[in-house]
Amino acid sequence: MRVDSACIKIENLKHKEDFPFARLEGVGPNLAGWGVIETCLLLPQSLCIMAGPSACLRHSAFMAHARGFTDRFYMLCVPELDMTMGRHLEKVEKGIRDIAARRQEKVIFLIVGCPDYILGTDFTGVIERLEKETGKRIILGAMAPITIGLKDSPFTSAYSSFYGFLKHESRQPDPEAVNILGTFMPLSDSGELYQVLKNAGLTHIHQLPLYDTLEQFSQMANASSSLVLHPLANGLSDRMEKEMGIPATFVPTSYGFGTIAQQYGAIAASLGRELDTAPFEATARMAAEPLLEKLKGKTIAVGCSINGSPWELASALLDFGLNVDTIFARGTFKPYEWQIIERLREAAPHTRAYNVSHPSMCGETAPFDHIDVAYGVDAGIFCARAANVPLSRYQEQKHGFENTVWMLEQTCEALEHPVSNYDWIYTRNFLI
Questions:
Q1: What pLDDT digit, counting tens, does each position of 352-366 carry?
Q2: Which of 142, 284, 339, 424 could form a disulfide linkage to 401, CB 3.0–4.6 angstroms apart?
Q3: Right CATH for 36-147 from 3.40.50.20, 3.40.30.10, 3.40.50.1980, 3.40.50.300
Q4: Domain edges within the chain
């Protein structure tokens, strides 16, 4: 089959170079996560202006509408010829000056596309003049798919730029304060992680999506520790640790009970406090048991547009005794995922992994008609007959043992009341 060129058995996946490579990759359906625009606008009192050709802006226009960002997002369409000749700089400068004059926000993100990225357009003079005239902070960023796979992606760079609003704060360490970094939708203050931390005496829990002002955001400078829930935040947490002395613990969103228990151990060690998680684990295991029974005998595929690692979710489902047949992934492996892949090689050597961005995958659904449950909208694109469980980064945000139960509840709901993949994409706006 054509998709075979995009596939590898887990038993043969030992190095990054083993993963199916294509000299020309497509922008796969896995890119349904945090975009540059969403990331920028997590910063309080900010707005975003994107400048580029109409074809580039089209995607962001749909995205901003779907995510409800249109009130803080502007687009400046500039002809490709003007960009090539450098004549668009004057238009960009005027556009930003006009918008800044009628907006109260203190920060403006200028986001450029692939053309400016390729040409290496120098915006230094534009930014210096605008900051001097407007009194606002101007931050340059890129939404350039050609940068996918770079060590410092535009997404990571955008999130890391928030450090500029913390580094000058006079730090007054609060032993009862902790930062939670890497959330798009905030964790609930009635959720498991909040309860565990509060029971351990942490009274001040800071989350970026909850703040309306830069002053509120600055409170993060006083935290005694940071918990990082998404790799996107590693750049920011590293700078906060190295330059502000705020230690960080990487505990990415996970679904396996064993992994979650280890993460709580790491959190306890970093905080220097005992965490009582046993009641939460016992409750979750009891709740999961009947839900898992409904999945016995189902053939499962896991995609990489989920909130978390597709490798970790696949490993968790295998540990539950379920049949994971297929994993849709990308070649941008996170360092922590290799240990998971090593376990998968032993537990499910014949499970197949596909490069979701490989051109051979375009339009292919027949090879996956045997899949019953597909996690992630990207997996649902290919597994057209499966019940699709998005586990999107734009749905509820949970962490800990309750996240596993939520995942299983979402799965059973999808089996009982399936929503077509077409509807997920075009009606519910999980993917553009």
A1: 999 998 989 988 899
A2: 284
A3: 3.40.50.1980
A4: 2-28+286-426, 36-147, 169-250
Tell me how far apart the alpha carbons of residues 311 and 319 are, in angstroms, rounded to a whole number: 12
Residue type at position 370? H
Residue-wise pLDDT tens digits, 203-251:
999 999 999 999 999 999 999 999 999 998 999 999 999 999 999 999 9
pLDDT of residue 149: 59
Angle at 245 between CA 240 and CA 250, to 5 degrees: 55
pLDDT of 28 reads: 59
pLDDT band at residue 432 using 50, 70 and 90 as cut-offs: very low
Fold of 169-250: Rossmann fold (3.40.50)
CA distances 31 to 2, 268, 306, 424, Å, are 22, 34, 10, 14
Residues 6 or more apart whose Cβ sits within 8 Å of residue 141 = 36, 40, 109, 110, 111, 112, 154, 157, 158, 161
